[in-house]
User: What shape does this take?
Amino acid sequence: MSKDFYSALQGRRSVYGLSKESVISDEKIQEVIEAAVKHTPSAFNSQSGRVLLLLGGQHDKLWDITKEALRKIVPADAFAPTEEKINSFKSGYGTVLFFEDETVIKELQSKFALYKDNFPIWSHHASGMLQFVVWTGLEAEGLGASLQHYGALIEDQVSQQWNVPSTWKLIAQMPFGKTTAQPGDKEFKPLEERIKVFK
Assistant: This one.
């Protein structure tokens, strides 16, 4: 890692200014993703997280799909800002797509009926942790990223385009690339209002 954990934690922000460059190799990007998928915790060690890594033209295709899906629902006279936003994601180097495999969740619901209602919730917890680990890992290697949620809007097209199993539920999309514009200052609420310590 080019940064230690706490530096990466502090540096991880929503970065929207991205370029079609990477400061690390595709192999290193894949290594970050693989380490995150392998080592991020999940309830009952379910390992239900699934990922697609889209680079180059495949990354561009995702955001073209998203733009056209939005064009169908956003009024034409209001589409310019939407198009600009999607183009900012497309201007990145790649995208990580996060899924949860519902087969795994249903199997756990069947096997541990007492916790049936909890497994979908725990699945989203695990996905959130995986997203955070990937995001922080990319930041540690010098790449900017943001997290987007166009799942229901593009899920069918994504499944068809990349032959995604029907049991994989699309949760989030993370465009990333070399940072071209730093995010603004972030305000923090006082920690004494957010943490209580008892000794």
Observations:
- The chain has a mean pLDDT of 96.
- Helices lie at 5-11, 26-39, 57-71, 79-90, 102-111, 119-140, 151-161.
- Residues 144 and 179 are 5 Å apart (CA to CA).
